[in-house]
Specification:
CATH architecture of the largest domain: 3-Layer(aba) Sandwich
Shape: globular
Number of strands: 8
Radius of gyration: 18 Å
Number of domains: 2
Number of helices: 13
Distance between the termini: 30 Å
Strand content: 5-15%
Oligomer: single chain
Structural class: alpha/beta
CATH topology of the largest domain: Rossmann fold
CATH class of the largest domain: Alpha Beta
């Protein structure tokens, strides 16, 4: 298979180590990965703010960049969900449809497509996992706690393959962190309080690291942790899955 690596703009600009870890992990697993150099923002910020009509250029560019790949993989659930639900390219709908049907968040690609059963990774720390709302409720990466149904977590399954990791149980495992894209700007006070509650849950249960599949959520939590001078760190799940034995 040939995979196109989609790296959202905020990862490219602020957390390039997440992009590198994603690439290295996929290559370790034998995947042929290509990175389209002309890729830019997928248009999610505009669409979420009610200006989807202004993202048509982003849709057309995304379709041109990622046409021809068997799969598109990204370490960002929210951006993947946006593309799945909103990508439209006038005059190139067949290519856009193929992309919408074959774009995957990293953890679902590893579990559903590659069907990974073991990883050469070690991370000897206590880790709390934050499931993003887009990943859980949009991409169905994990079960929602309010449902009376069988519990599952694709990211959790992968993290448990990592040697020496200790996943801490949270009191409210699928509570929103409060980031919400432009919500954190328009409703700053509410967003901060939600983030503080999310951080407190991890701290109460002894987490040394907070991990997740969306750097946007982790960035929000990291800002709160820094202002609290907390020793707790944030790390994207790809960095843990790609960690070495050394």
């Amino acid at each position: 298979m040939k995979v196109g690596l989609f790296i959202p703009c905020y990862i490219d600009q602020f957390y390039p180590q997440v992009a590198i870890a994603t690439l290295q992990l996929l290559e370790k697993l034998g995947v042929e990965v290509a990175y389209p150099l002309q890729q830019t923002c997928c248009g999610q910020p505009m669409a979420n703010s009610g200006f989807a009509s202004l993202a048509k250029g982003c849709d057309a560019l995304f379709t041109r960049n990622f046409s021809g790949y068997d799969y598109i993989v990204s370490p960002s659930g929210s951006c993947v969900l946006h593309v799945k639900e909103h990508l439209y390219a006038a005059g190139n709908e067949a290519a856009a449809t193929h992309i919408r049907n074959n774009i995957f968040e990293l953890s679902e690609f590893l579990t559903d497509v590659l069907q990974v059963t073991e990883l050469e990774a070690r991370f000897p720390h206590k880790v709390g996992f934050h499931i993003s709302c887009h990943g859980q409720r949009g991409l169905h990466l994990a079960q929602m706690s309010e449902l009376v149904a069988e519990d599952f977590s694709k990211p959790g399954y992968l993290l448990r393959l990592v040697k020496d990791i200790e996943l801490v149980e949270l009191n409210r495992k699928d509570e929103c962190c409060g980031f919400g894209g432009t919500f954190c700007v328009s409703e700053e006070a509410v967003s901060v309080k939600m983030g503080q509650d999310r951080v407190a849950d991890h701290q109460l249960n002894g987490a040394e690291y907070i991990t997740g599949g969306d750097v946007s959520c982790l960035m929000h939590l990291e800002g709160i942790l820094r202002r609290k001078n907390s020793p707790v760190k944030v790390i994207h799940m790809a960095e843990i899955l790609n960690s070495s034995y050394e």
